[in-house]
Amino acid sequence: MRVPLNWLRAFCAPDLDVRALAERLALTGTEVDRIHTHGVAALERFVVGRVLTAERHPDADRLSVCTVAIGEGDVATIVCGAPNVAAGQTVAVAQPGAIMPDGTKLKKAKLRGVPSEGMILAEDEVGIGTDHDGIMVLDDDLVPGTPLEDVLPLTTEVLELEITPNRPDCLAIYGVAREVHAATGAPLAPPPWADDPGRAGDVEGIEVVVEAPDLCPRFTARRFDDVELGPSPAWLKARLMAAGQRPINNVVDITNYVMLETGQPLHAFDLDRVAGGRLVVRRARAGETMTTLDDVERTLDEDVCLIADADGPTSIAGLMGGARSEVAPTTTRVLMEAANWDGPNLQRTSTRLGLRTEASSRFEKQLAPEQTLDGQALATKLMIELCGARPVGGTVDVGGPGPAPAVIRLRDARVSGLLGAPVERSESAGVLERLDFGVAEAADGLDVTVPAFRRNDVSREADLIEEVARLAVLERLPATLPSRRGASGRLSVAQRLRRRAEDALIGAGLSEIVGWSFVSPQLPALLGLDGDGALVLENPMSEEQSVMRTTLVGSLLDAAQRNRARGAGAVRVFEVGSVYLPGEAGPEPRLSLGAGTHAARGQAPDASTWQQRNAAELPPLPDEHLHAAVLLTGAVRPATWGDPEPPQADFFAAKGVLEAMLGALRVEFELEPGGAPFLHPGRAARVLIDGKPAGGLGEIHPQVAARWDLGRTAGFELDLDAVTAAAVSVPAYRDLTSFPSVRQDLAVIVGDDVPAAEVLRVVRAAGGALLAAVEVFDVYRGEQVGAGRASLALRLEFRASDRTLTDEEVAARRGKIVAALRDQLGGELRG
């Protein structure tokens, strides 16, 4: 919503500059996106002039050489290209040194050899219109040399506001003025619709039938004859331009002006082009077509609400009028329509047709039916004043006003209790009265009558307290912590373990990313996964974000691709986040992220409504798990002169990061062959914790990596819930130095299909309590051990906590290890 400051100050003019006003609005709940200046930024050197002579340029048929009086006897020679310039005209002049709206500084110039000392201005050159076909001709009684800013609205600062969906009343200049009045206490002028020159009663020759009252709660219309179509005055054009609207003609400009000032959109029909003088509001028929004002033929469906006459559709209700009945240069009779439409239906129509207008953006937020007559009142004033129109008859009014206003009790004790600070009743009453709420004294507080334009937003006592808080109380509330017994700021065990894991990954040189929980429905296929059972959103932000993710790998691959495309040689990233695995919801469960019909109408659903909705529409949600994932691509370390081509990230680089993370958590793990479809079949493993699968480790399949424009890439993904469940949160003390250890090496030959993890498991079991550690430090395959066999070199460390071990004790334990390897795995010592 663009709010020109000079237009706003016509209704409420606080003693604040534009930045202080913007800050005050932001602090009271109206977000100011930015401030800019519309029109001429520097007003100097713009004056009123009078053309004394206008002669054809000696060397150019389309140029005129003019002498222009610019005040105090000064005369300037100006070369002008406008076809309508003539002697005797009073005009707007920019002198050399003037700063034009686009930032250009005007200088003296020569045009075809004739000096030109300025410019005679057209509307678009000072931002008060779009006409460039001719110069502006001002009133003859103006004195040359008068500053142009005293005559025309050349400049204004503009506030661009971000209006929340629950406040359509602030999509109006007067609505914003009401907020400024409430926030600053500055006087508020009466509403522009206060004096209505129209009246009630029938309108001769006009009939309106509403066949879809659920889509059109109220329809009003007024007839105007003897309409003189033409350009709007400069002040109205300037306000429209500053608010982002393009002036067209006085009738159309009035509809736009009224919409911006009151918040109620209007539509002007050429009454002579309304077939039969009868309008019908109905649902469209399947496949019905009409051509809208943008000259596009649109195909409609049965959910679209339209206005039709005897010859068929004439406009899409609340969205855009039809070309067949638009106001034309020959128009002399106008039917002015101001109606109220069902917001959710209009929003669906706008989305399906790919057509969004200023009117639809207001109607879809559900305006009050009472606002229709507000718009009609102001439009009637302007039609009489600017078009010389004559109102005929009364006002067609089908549907009438909305329900009776709600009265809500606002208790003094509840206000103070909810806000945590005492609030005087008079202060609450003052805030609400400035917002146009009705206020009456009650025994324990106030009886507050909600105005029609806040009907959808304020429905309970807490809503009234929010209004009091944002406008009068929040700024003075002390900063305190919630009162709660037994509360502490300590992290839970799971939170501490998660942070320990993240610190370990950062210490390993990785950077954290945060990816979307929503992914493309094509992602499972790109990763070779089965997408059945994935959670599908009913109202996604886009098709590319319509499914809840079941793995973190997709967002990591996206991050790696983005960084490599921007010149990163090596990418080492990790993410800790939720995944959503299929539960008992069955195939393709769906989740709505919106609040449904209630939220669209601005109504708060009660608990029973949500229970019914959940039971009737929403299946049980899938299982949510916290995962941690790592991705490495590129060189494992920077190149140096001594190592110009360091190795690329591979299975073992990822395994090293996995060991660092799980080591920090003191979690023992094992690996076994296997892995996800997106991993290299020969370079992947499942991660086991306490003998149960907890994730996967390996290199990304080359075909999958190529889809993200990546080379050799490796990583892992773990169920962090399973990891933290097995982690040692409080480590126990163990004596490691009182008695020396005995270290021995052992080489055992086993079948090539025997995993090293299985060899280590057998060794640990046979070594018993005396075996403190075992690791594989070498692997050999070759002729000396035979085909299909491998030699594993093991380093064994024996230690007792209460004594120094003897050679005999170590030899006996070593013998048990050798026997176990022979009996369980067919292993033999290598000589």
- Mean of residue pLDDT? 88
Report helical residue fraction: 25-40%
Alpha-carbon distance between the two ends: 86 Å
Strand percent estimate: 25-35%
**What is the number of helices?**
21
Strand order of the largest sheet: 26-30-32-36-35-34-33
Gyration radius over CA:
39 Å
Structural class label = alpha+beta
Low-confidence stretches: 585-616
Query: How many beta-strand segments?
Result: 40
Q: In this structure, how is the largest beta sheet organized?
A: 7 strands, mixed
- Which term fits the overall shape? elongated
Question: Which secondary structure elements does this structure contain, and how are they paired or packed?
Answer:
Elements: E1 2-4, H1 5-8, H2 18-27, E2 31-39, E3 46-57, E4 60-71, E5 74-80, E6 90-94, E7 109-111, E8 114-116, E9 119-120, E10 137-138, E11 155-162, H3 173-184, E12 207-210, E13 218-225, H4 234-242, H5 250-262, E14 267-270, E15 278-283, E16 289-291, E17 297-299, E18 305-309, E19 312-316, E20 320-321, E21 334-340, H6 343-353, H7 358-363, H8 371-387, E22 390-398, E23 407-411, H9 412-419, H10 425-434, E24 438-441, E25 445-449, H11 461-473, H12 493-507, E26 511-512, E27 518-519, H13 523-527, E28 536-537, E29 547-548, H14 553-565, E30 571-581, E31 590-591, H15 596-600, H16 607-616, E32 623-633, H17 651-665, E33 670-673, E34 679-689, E35 692-700, H18 702-707, E36 713-719, H19 720-726, E37 742-751, H20 756-767, E38 771-780, E39 789-798, H21 807-825, E40 828-829
